[in-house]
Fold these 2 entries.
Entry 1:
Amino acid sequence: MVLVVAFSLGLAGVLTMVGLLFVKGSRLVQRLPRVATWGRLLPAASALVIMVIGIWLTAEAMSRLQR
């Protein structure tokens, strides 16, 4: 039980720090126009990368099923 409590406290601390860093980081992004542009493009680029990896893994799995 002690380990569960310690893990939960550690996780809560890490998530709080990540949230605070996002708040501070968003203020920095608003000040720098070039970073703001990349900030708008990055979600679409990461979604494209994840989609390509998913298609690749699906094709790989399909080829192994046909053997």
Entry 2:
Amino acid sequence: MIALALVLRAGLFPLAENKHGDAPMRALIAEWMNLDPHAAADPRTYCQFGPLHTTLMRPFLALDPFAPRSSRYLSLLAGVAVFFPFLRLARRLAPPRYAPLAALALAVSPLHIQASVTASSEALYLLLMVLCLERLLAALDSGRAATFALAGLFASLAAVTRYDAWIDFPIVVVAAAWLWRARGIAGRWLGLVIFAAVAASLPAAWIAWSARVTHDPFFFAHYISSDHAQLAAAITARWGALGARVRQVGIWALAFVGTMSLPLVVGAAIALRRGLPRRAGQPLSAAAELVAVAALAPPALYLAKGILLLSFEPLPRFAVIPGALLLPLAAEAAATRWSARACRAAVVASAVIFSAVVIVIAWTGRARVWSGAESFAPITRLDGEDRALADYLRAHRQASDRVLIEPLDFADIVIAHAAGVPAPLTVSLAITRHPEPTLAATLARTGARWLAVYDAPPGTWFPRFAADWPADTPAFGHWRLLRAE
């Protein structure tokens, strides 16, 4: 299974490009820190992201200056390395004969492949979560303080990679104390205290540093809440309250299928029913219940925020970690209900069909790629006109030139990253995302040497500038590019 995972990820790596979610922005931040080491001294440079992922990306960008490629090396390594602790974790949660089926599902998972070949943080985060939970279960069985500390270290690293861990680990500690209460938990209280203390160490340092420099210890939380609230408000305005709620459920459901495969989503539902009170049959083990709690706590909170408050917009990649953690339980339940051979065939077929359908829907029949469908796919690719604009800027822009690209569903970040424009010189990231009333005023205020606007919907800037726009400027599809003299 490890060889299959390596072949799929290494084979698709040259075809994939940073496009969705946070991938291009994370790469721009890491590149910015390499260009200006002083930027790393300000926690605000990390925007809403945990600091570990972009920090670990920096050596790869230093070795290979082509950031669209080198920013993805860390994810590729983490996306393959995770299979070693994942198999150990799977054997702790279910009989060893079911571990290969769980690993197969992860190996062919479209969304985990996407995380492994782009600069998003999910591949690294999943690796750290699996390492943490596998060592925590070992510690709860053995009671060894050193193992609790090692599990806490992995938890702490995970917590400064993605903030989902800040939801997860307090709940995990409480759940562990409850689930192991009948196993002489008194002898493990010290271990859980050690785990919690070590897990909290790096987040506490991050909060303290943020408070000292920015005078706002939770500035990143404000970024995250604001971004998702704005996205959710836009969706609600377009779909209505009921439509937005139904859409939330649909995204989560498809994302779990894209992570786990349809047969193992059904298997997970069968397994989780065994954890309900007063259910007949073999109950879940304490280890399985603990991992299920760790898997489901963040998405349960996000789904509640999305459905009840309409203040959260889910992205498909948010299902990668919970879906992967549930795979060992799902594999056992599915293979017990059907046969292991049938499950293997169904898992592979599900992954192939799911990938083919979302790619065809995303890449055909539209002027631009449908990002909503492509975000479920194993690889993401730039729109042809975006790539052409980025290639031109990369070839003709001087190192000190500022570039202003119309923020077209965040295409400005994608194009700037692909064109090699550092974040401080990307006007929409460093200065403003809004134009002035006229072309001349916009260029004067921003100091942009290059201005790219989109002359068709959903672009809105070109009509404002059309009267002053020169007639002989280059065009790339619907992108118009102006070089200020």
